[in-house]
Amino acid sequence: MSTSAKGNLPRPLSAFIGRQREVDELARLLSESHLVTLTGAGGSGKTRMSIRLAHEMVEEFSHGIWFIEFAPLVDASSIPQAVLPRSACANKQRAH
Question: Per-residue b/e over 40-54, b at no fewer than 16 CB within 10 Å?
Fold first, then answer.
């Protein structure tokens, strides 16, 4: 997967078909809150749908949108090490 220029969003390798109503609802929820949590069974499309929404909204965020993969983490103490490198990337883009 390649990434977008404003952040590091993965570009899907295939078309996003269906679920636009759910993506629109997520966009509405994000307009009301800074945090929206998606829950559901593994493989149900939560990540794919959130990445789709991020691509649709990336121009609304001047410093881009940064994707952080939490699935490989084995415990919560690993979260800072996963987040900090992305935070540094975002800060570098702000400086330019």
Answer: eeeeeeebebbbbbb
